Each structure stands twice: as C-alpha cells, then as structure tokens.
C-alpha cells in the first residue's frame, strides 16, 4: 500500500486521504529500552514510543491527521512514590512533543483513557476537579484544535473538531460511562451531560451534512475477552444508549475507534426495535438490539508491550469519509542488536479478501462466516493476538457473539445460549 502526502494537494483535488491511528501508549517516561523490567505489558519506554512515531513518519510524512484513543500515561510500580499531577502533565506534554517533532503540520486528535489522570480509573464526577488536566491539555493541544473545541476540552475532556470540510471527529471521554468509576452510581449527571452533548453534536453534523468518526477509549459495545471475561468497559445501559444514538444517526457516522482492550478487534453496533416504534432514552421501550448492523466499532491493538505493539495507517475517501483500506504495522526487535523496527503486519484488503468493503454489512457477513469457518476465525484471532484453542467451540462462540451483539447484553446472552 502506497500512502500519498495529500496535504501537499488542495483538499478538493484529493480523493484519497490518510491518517494514523494508535492507542494505549502507556508511556513510561523513565523506562529504559532493553530493560526487561521496563518492557512488560502496559509500560512503554519513551524510546519505544519515539521509534514508533519515527516509523509512522517514514511511512507517511504528511497524513491528514493522527488519531489517538487514549491511555497516553502509565507508571510502573517502581515509580508509584513519584505519582503526582505534575508528572501526569509532564507525560502528556512529552507525548505531544514527540508527535509534533515528527509531524509539525499534522493535527493530533486524542481521547483520554482511564490512566490519563491521577489517580487512575475513578474520574471525578465533578468535572471541575479535573480542570488541572483539562486546562493543561487545552494549552498543549492548541496547535491542533480551534477555539470552540479547546473551550469544550478545557471544561469536560471531550470535544468535536472538523478534520476537513466533510469530516467531523467527535472525541468522547468514556471515563464518564465506565463500570469501575465508582462515583457514577451516586452521581450520573456527568454521564447524562455527555450523552446530551453527543446527541447535539450528531444533530449538528447531520445538519451540516458532515460524516463523523467517533473516537474514545473504552469500547462503546462489547466486553473484553482474554482468558475469561473482563467487565471493565461501559455500563450495559450506556452501551445500549450508544447503540440507540448510533442507529438514529447511522447515516452520519462513518466509523468508531476505541482502545483499552489492547487487542485488534472489530465489533458491530446493531439496530434496535422499540415498542413505540422510535428510540426513547427515557423509557424501557427497547424490544431488541439484534437488527442489521448500523455501524462498526474498531478496537485498536495497543502500542504498548501487551501482545505485539502496533499502530495502523488508514486510507479513506475524503468526499464521503468512508474507510477504504488499512495497514497495520507491528514492532519487531532485532535479537542481536536490540534495534526496533515496525514492519507491516497485515493489510486489510489482502487479509480479508472475502470482504467487498469496510461497511457494517460486510463486517457482519465476515463475522457470521467465521461462525462456521475455523480457518477464517483462526486467521482473525492470529491478527487479534489472542485466540482460541483449535476445536474450542465455547471460546469461538463467545468471541463471535461478542463481536456480533455487543450493543445488547440480552442479545449477547441469546447468541451464547443458541450457540453453546
């Protein structure tokens, strides 16, 4: 796949666009490359991150933008006594500087993960308690965002931005919807406010005739499956509400990008049916969310040392914002010299040759094909980084049901019951 520096062309003359996508960097600014204790899961020495960014630049020096799905910050146990707000800010600044040094003219659009604030995970439901972080990010990301986006970011940690005349990127702060944020059961106001904001942004995009990429950290549908089930994502109610909003604005939403689970996955947002015939978030009128796929959720392989660190280069149609292809690059370490390289891991158009395109319908057909085709399923899980033992039908059933029906837990359980 050859990536063209489209920023050198007038936007209206460019039919193909490119962007990079990375997630879960977990940067350890004190970590040493080559030190085994600093190169374990969820820790990334600065030199490893810089190597990845340099590799991106060598692949495409002028992408349209860089998308990041959160967890920029992380600290190993040896630094626990050094944790402070200042160090969190220092890491965010260092990460931003790495990007700007290699891509001085390329905007960075980043979401926030559960590790990007101190203390981690339990993000305050009073957004003013996080203003020390949000105000800092609005300063260091000011080269990438207009004033209106910076104002929203400085208050809430989420924002929307026009990446082109035809594309709007809506960046969520999914920390306000997560199961392990223990403040949410007592104060759901921050969650409700973000849903209202998301709906208003989707309405605005539809009125402006723009397509939308949704970017966030915790996947909006499904659960994490790896040696068991980890329920560390969104509250089931919020997953269903996301699916309902997605269905309402499916014509505007081109794709969604999330991280957190550290594996390469594709999940579907399914259409719902309602007793009243229309979505009603204030009632229990949902009959089922098992209709045709209304959208695709991409979950990114981590750039940190969990499985194989990787990043992705996307191609898309500028006019429609439809995704057209991608190539994933994975880290390789020379055993003799310790030198890092980032060769191609796979390209979608070659790896998924049974698919006509990257549409929701095509992904639904591909995942359904894997239900009866072990060869296709094993190829998928090899790319994912975590698979099922040959013949383990329970593992395959759970994995594929999660991809097919992650937007509704009742539908997921029905799929499991039918397939086991």
TrEMBL record:
Residues making up the signal peptide according to the UniProt record: 1-16
Residue ranges of domain Calcineurin-like phosphoesterase in the record: 22-263
Domain of life according to the entry: Eukaryota
UniProt keyword annotations, A-Z: Glycoprotein, Hydrolase, Signal
Stated name of the protein: Calcineurin-like phosphoesterase domain-containing protein
Native organism: Tetraparma gracilis
